[in-house]
Each structure stands twice: as C-alpha cells, then as structure tokens.
Amino acid sequence: MRIPLSWLGQHVSLPADITPEQVHADLVRVGFEEESIDRFESTGPIVVGEVLSLEPEEQSNGKTINWCQVRVAAPGEKAADGGEDVRGIVCGAHNFSVGDKVVVTLPGAVLPGDFKIAARKTYGHVSDGMIASARELALGEDHDGIIVLSRLGLDPEVGEDALELLGMHDSAVEINVTPDRGYAFSMRGVAREYSHSTGAEFVDPAFALEIGTGSGFEVVLDDQAPIRGRKGCTGFIARVVRGVDPSRPTPPWMVARLTLAGIRSLGLEVDISNYVMLEFGQPLHAYDMNKLRGGITVRRAQPGETLVTLDGNERKLHVEDLLITDESGPIGLAGVMGGESTKTDDSTTDVLIEAASFDPISIARTLRRHKLPSEASKRYERGVDPLVASAAAQRMADLLVELGGGTIDTLGANIVAPFEPVSITLPLARVNGLLGTDYSDAEAQGAIELIGCTVESSTDAAGKTTLNVTPPSWRSDLLRPADLVEEVARIVGYDRIPSVLPVAPAGRGRTRAQRLRRRAADLITAFGFDEVQNYPFVSRAQLDACGVGAADEAGEEVRAVRLANPLDGETPFLRRSLIAGLIGTAQRNASRGLTDLALVELGSVFVPQPEGEQLGTDSVPPLAERPSAEKLAELNASIPAQPLRLAGLLLGDAVAKQPGESAREYDWADALEAAKTAAGAVFAELVVRQGTHRAFHPGRTAELLVSVEGELELVGVAGELLPELVQNSHLHGRVSAFEIDLGRLIELAPEAPQTSNLSTYPAATQDLTLLVDLAIPAEAVRAAVVAGAGDLLEHAAMVDDYRGTGVPEGQRALTFALRFRAEDRTLKAEEASEAKLAGVRAAEIAFGAKLRD
After folding, report:
1. Which fold does the domain 424-496 belong to in CATH?
2. Rounded to an integer, what distance in angstroms lies between the CA atom of residue 420 and that of residue 417?
3. With CB atoms counted within 10 Å of each terminal CB, which end of the chain scores lower, N or C?
4. In this structure, is the dihedral angle defined by the CA atoms of residues 139, 142, 143 and 148, taken in order, positive or negative?
C-alpha cells in the first residue's frame, strides 16, 4: 500500500516537518514493514506560463511546429531560472492557443528519466525551455497535447510554481500489508494505525459524512450456491448521480495522489471510484445507467455463460463465480472486474454507483480461477468493513457532484450488510503468560480499546480480571484471545518484549529414530559422501528404469503414485527409488566439469496402495464444506506408504592421480562398503548375496539382507549401474550405487546394542583357500566357514578371488583371512587349525568346497 503524505494528513494530524522516513518508522512501530519511498522525479524551475503568441511553421519533413512567445514571470521580473520573463519556445503540440496558461519547464529543470532541460537550437529557433505534457511530467499517459491549466479549472498567476499547483511536491511511503490486515489497504486504516503509533488525532472520514440513501432501484441477492454456507453477497448499496459532465477532467491534486498511490488516471468517474476505494478501503464500481437493462441481480453463473470483462477478454464462467447481472445477462464478475457492456465512457452522464459486501472466499476463488487480480479483489479477499459501504457510496456521489457537476438522484438501493460481531473472552493474565512480558492490566485493556474494540471487564474473587471484547467492524481478523494478545504486543510496543532464551524442559530431545537417522547421515558423510536433496517427482522413463527391483517381471510398468496437479507434466509420478534423482544430480554436475562424485541422499519414497485401494479424483470431497470424519479417515488411509531410504552414487575416481600413485576408479566394492557402513550406523549387519535389479549390471549386483528371527529379509541393493542406463544419462565410465531401506533397519535396531569385550589375549591368524564352482556366491561360502568355525573365529574376510592357471575350469579359488581369539586364554595353533578345518567341512557339506593345497 502506497500512502501519499498529503492525503494521510487529511485524516490524522501530521507534524509540519514530517518526513517519509519518520512516517515509515512510526508505522513500523505498529507492525507494518517498510518497502519504499516514492516521489515525483520532476525537479527544478517548472512554472506557470502564459502563451503570448503562436506562429505555426511547416517543416521540410512535413511536420508543423509552433514558434511561441511565452510569459513565464510577471512583467519586468526575473523568471525562476534567473532569465527573462518572456521566452521563445518551440512546441509540437496543437491543443492550445494564445492566452492559455500552460506548464513550462525552464532550463535547469530535470524531468523523469533524467531528461535535462536546456536552451537548445531546434527547427531553426533557440527553444528556451519546454511546454510540458502530462506524460513528460509522469502525471499520465497523454502525450499528444500539453497541459492547459484553464481546462483543469485552474487560473493561476504567471510564474507560480507549477509543481506545487499540480500537487507534485508530495511524496508517498509504501508499506507491506500482511493478509490478515486488509483494513490497512486504505487511507482510513493507515491513518488510524498512525494514530495508534504516535497518539496523533485521527478523524474517521466515514463518520464525517452526511449519509443519504436511495430507493426504488431493484436489487436482488439470489445466491443459490453459497460456499461453506456463506452467501456470496450480503449487502448492496446503490446510488444514482445524474447529469455528470463527461468532459470535465480529473483535478490535478487527485491525479497526483492517484499516481503516487500507483494507480493511473483513466477519467473522472473511474478516478473518483479508485480515489474513494483507496480512502475508505471499500471497492466501488460505476455503471452507465443508460446501458443497464432493468434492475440488478447478484447470482452464481449458469453453465455455459460468458462475460467480456473491462480488459476486453471473453471469459468462460464457472458455476461458482458470483456475477452482477441485469436483464441482458452477466455485466460483471462480482468484486473482481466489471463488464465491458455497462462501463462508463466519454458519453456517460448518468452513473449508478455500486458499493457491495462480498464474501472473501468467493472472491478469492474467482480471481484465482480467472487469473484476474485487481485492486478491488485484493481488498475483498482480505475482508472489507461491512459498515463502510454506505459512506463510500455517499463519498463518491458527493465527488461526482463537486467535480463532475452531477446531481444526486433519490433512485437507488440500500441493502446494508448485517454485522454480527464476535465476542471474545480474554483473561488478562493470559497476555503476559503468552508474551512473557510485564504489561499492566491497564496497558493491556487500553491497547484493546484503542484499536476500536468495545470492552467489558469483570473481576473474580481472586482478583483476576477478564475482558469480554467485541471487535469493531473493520477488524474481521480478531477471532480468538491470541489475536487480542498480539494486538496488545503491537500497540504497547514490541520493544517491551524481553529477549530471553527459553530453557528446554528435561527429558526432551530427539526420538530414538531421529537419533539413529542422524547417526547414519553423519557417518555416511564422514565416509566421504556429499549429501543432496532432490525433488521427489520422476518421469515414467525414470520410474521404469530405477523404480523397483527384480521382483517385478521384466518389461512390466512400475506402479507409482501419479499426481493430479504435477508441477511439470513431464514428471507426474512420485519416486519409488532415490537413484533416479541421484543420476540427475550427477548428470548436472558432470556437465559442469565435476566428474569425481560421491553423492548420497536421505529421503522418502512413495509406495502406492494395492490395486483397488487408491482414491480417484472423483473421491476427493468438495472444498465448499469440511469433510466428515469418515471421509477424512478414508483420505488418510489412501495416503501412500513413505518408507525412509538412504541411497548413494559413485562416479569417477576414488583416488585422484598424483605423483607416485595411480588413479583408482570407484567400483561396486566402494558402493557395497558404503552400504555396510550406513547399516552399521544403526547397528545392522548386512548379509550380501548375488542378485538382480532392473537398474543394475546383471553380473555386478548384490542384494543386501538382514536376519530377522532366523529369516533373511531384503533391505537394499548395491553394485554397478546398468551400462545402458549410464549411457542414456550422459554419464561416462562406470557408475556404482547403493540403496538401503534405512527406515526398516531403524525399526530392527536393538534397543541396547550388544558389544563384545576386548580380549587381552593375542589373536591367531590363518589363511584359507577353497575351490568352489563359479556359480556359488563368495559371501555364501564365507558364511558357511564362519558358521562351521564356531565361537573362536573373531573375523573372516575374503581377500582374493583367483581364476586361472592351477584352478580347474568352471571353478575359482577364494582366499579368506581368518582371525581366531579366545577370551580366557592364549590359543594354541592346533586349536585355531581345528576351528579352521571345521569351517572347511561346513563349506564342503554346503557347497562341495575343496581345500586348495
């Protein structure tokens, strides 16, 4: 909201030396954020001049200019720039004549756009200044003709300051108005708030009018489809003014104020409606009485109806749109924009003024549906004072009489919107309890009364005071005790609220699941990964490539949750895997030259409901009313499962090439080790076996499992991505990845993880090499050895996988490094060898493994 200071000063007492910066500071004190300060850019000697002579001269280019002699100061006196009182000026406009008084910019003046005025030779003459148009002064769009002051109803003295005459020494402050304070979209509301801040005397313009009424004009409020049980229109004030002179211009002071407020001057009738809207906060609309057909009906749109709005666009109407109609059909989108068929124009003499009260929700939906924001809808959707409509209509009628020469007719309508004030009970002790302040009861009650509330107080036997508060009509945002507490803080002063760091109560903190999640994230980033966050939206191609594992048949489309209103039509699905997002992030980084990447993401995936349980769009309840408890339960039940996953992607070199050391590329082993590290953070031990996954290389894929009550449960996958997928993603080299169901691992994590005691006895180490068939997974062989070796085996790790000379065809030699230790003694070599051979026997029984010599 932009507030011209001269206008503000009409409603509240401003100091004579007030500055825009001080007004900003005063309004900030009551909660309005400052935005900017606006001034007219024209400076320097700009004066009233009188045309003494005018000689048309046709130029070689076909253009006719006027060589003028213009008096810019009283005879014998120096002009404002110190020069002669009569100047020769070249002017290309032709809308003036000898004797007219005009606006003259003298040398030294600067116009908007840093256009500096100087005496210069043009068209064979030295033009000692310029006669200005409205556009050149940034007062309007008219550039074809210059400003003739007599046609604006002005007869100033020659040499008078034209900027002062046109109201251009004014300035405006702009403030940010929050959505809950719609009353501040008016001079009336801001002046009241300035009074609250400074104590300056405020005069409500709505109470300073003698308000008349009209009757006999038929207005019907016929809302057959109220939203949430609330009628779209609750009040409609109509006044008629006849005999308005359409040729009369808008006075300069009004043009200047509208311009500073950010609204273009469009003609007297429209300018007056905008002026009153800015002054009172009540949107108004003017109809040409001679274009109306019968009375007015306010109703909802019917299927198939259209309306050409004032911007010239034909709009297809929705059945929820609230319309202003006459016998010809729709003539306006209620509270948003009027219609083309009944607008006022240069021939309008009889005007019907509309000041209506519309439901904020209805207006908000209409303007968003048609993407048609306007100054009127901006106020209606935030709530307009229902009791100000009559005063606003009267103010506009009075201005049409004063400035347009019209006469107020007795014809009109007077449907006043009902005002049903809410009653709020506020125990005064709650003010300091919520704010942590030491406001006195008198301060709190005084602040509530100051904003216009009616207050009744009562005191109980314990001496505690309770207020029964009735907010004023212009404060529809005050609905509960907390709203009143906020007003007390705002009026008494935010500076009275102490800065105290609250002390958290004992026993609070992260939940166990949150601690484990944070532990996993910290450990995997310490492992060398960079954490990223991707959007959960994927395309069908990404979904089919990375969505699920081998459990789905090859070629089958992956089921996923599809959004009804996706941000991007190319990515309408919710992800089933985090890998697709990591591939996209790697692609963007690689395209910018970052080729060595270790990326990790912690986030949710979305698993759709089983067939038949997913809600369709036809099951979504209407927005006009609150759904029943049963419907809410059904909606909640339809929300897809969202398990927590942790995924990583590795690309490029794990170790960069450097003197004395060769580069080493990331491979599947790095991905597998990262997955084990992340699982270990939540005390899970992964079992690894050969597997398949649609996004991974068929021969370099490991399924990750955990033991649950003796059974193995699949919780993730690791390995090398499918080369075709890597190529289609415009990545280079081998790309490895892993993904684990971190949420499930956290569920399975023990409440008190078991730890082993550190033995003080030395370990016995031995190596073991077994010959097994190529088809047998190495992890399965290791697991058999561990199970057979018993409790003395402390650690077993595969250190070599040899295939070649000395190994039978179709087999491989797996070498394991074993470490044995006893907690109560030093092991003998024979004990370690016996345990190792027990492991060999177990592998032989399970897989036919043979000990290699």
Report:
1. Phenylalanyl-tRNA Synthetase; Chain B, domain 1 (3.30.56)
2. 10
3. C
4. negative
> Domain locations in the chain?
2-40+171-203, 46-165, 215-415, 424-496, 514-616+637-748, 764-851
φ, ψ at 75 (rounded to 5°)? -55, 130
Tokens of 208: 């300073």
Which amino acid type is present at position 336?
A: V
> Is the full-model pTM beyond 0.90?
no
43 DSSP assignment: B
Using alpha carbons, select from 511, 523, 456, 471 the residue that is nearest to residue 676: 523
Tell me the H-state helices in 20-168. 20-28, 162-165
Confidence at residue 262, expressed as pLDDT on a 0 to 100 scale: 92
Residue 94 CA neighbour count, 13 Å, CB half: 7
Contact predicate 186/276, CB 8 Å: no
In 3D, which of 263, 269, 285 has the Cα closest to residue 335? 285
Regions of the chain with pLDDT less than 70: 142-144, 549-556, 611-625
Beta partners for 537?
574
Structure confidence at residue 551 (pLDDT): 44
Distance CA 803, CA 347 (A): 100
CB 323 within 8 Å of CB 310: no
The owner of tokens 């910066």 is 21
Contact assessment for residue 578 and residue 603, using Cβ atoms and an 8 Å cutoff: yes
If you average pLDDT over every residue of the chain, what do you get?
Answer: 91
Predicted pLDDT of residue 555: 53
- Rounded to the nearest 10°, the torsion over CA 622, 623, 626, 632 is 60
* Fold equal for 2-40+171-203 and 424-496: yes
CB 844 within 8 A of CB 850: yes
Instruction: Give the pLDDT score at 612.
Output: 42
Residue whose structure tokens are 């968003």: 368
Burial label for 575, CB within 10 Å (0-12, 13-18, 19+), is buried
pLDDT of residue 622: 65
Each residue's pLDDT tens digit, 36-58: 999 998 998 999 999 999 999 98
